[in-house]
Design a protein that fits this description.
alpha+beta, five-stranded antiparallel β-sheet, globular, UPF0473
Amino acid sequence: MNEKIVLLDEMGNKVEFQVLATFGLDDFEYAALLPVDDMESLTYLLRIEYDDEGEPILVGIDDDEELKDVIETFEEIQKEKLQ
């Protein structure tokens, strides 16, 4: 996957991200993103939801248990890619 997207940060600045992976878990979809300008940065894991027109919206994960499960799933995906 070599897809890139641009999102706005909390200050309204445009930030370009590399989409590392998208994956499903427990009836939800998630995206793993890495800022293009800072490849040493942390990976952002966000839930993919859809608006009334069916357009995807990326939202943060507030539930600690959900976030733990998403991190574990993403780490497994990364391990499989290396094999």
